[in-house]
Amino acid sequence: FIEVLVVAVPVIASYRYVRLTLARRWREFLTTLILDRYFVNRAYYMLDSNSTSTNIDNPDQRISEDVESFTSETLGFLLDILGSVLNLISFAAILWATSEQLTYALIAYALVGTVIALAVGGELISINYEQLRLQADFRYSLVHVRDNAEAIAFYQGEDREKGGVVTRLRATLQNFDRVIQWTTGLTLYQK
To answer: Which among 32, 47, 90, 118 is placed 20 to 30 Å from 150, CA to CA?
Structure first.
């Protein structure tokens, strides 16, 4: 038991270190790439919140937060798939030695399960993307209040501004309910 522990602990720690380092480097690469494009041909100006010619909202927050979320979530998903494939290969060899027929049945079962998980996971990706967008809108509405506090106070626009902030908060929380439901469903399916 001690020998297994002596080998397992450094392997697990190394795996976590490599995973976090890979996520950090991927985030740095992707953020730098996006920043390079953001500052070319005055794209930052075209994406300004006052511009009417863009469908991209809150580009500054998207660059700072969404890239991190995308890289960590995607990397986690890819490493989970890799781990599952490695488990499949190792256990398939043992199962094959026990029963070839059972091996084929379990492979078919795993393929069907994977297709279902990918369909559910695809929807969850869309819902998470929407959550990031809604959270960015909510944060921006709070920044807007801070940046325009004097004008809001002068024109007594507190109720209107609060209404806008609360509306964005409710939309964020309603979508988060969807995230909870889909994540719970996927967890129940996987377990």
So the answer is: 47
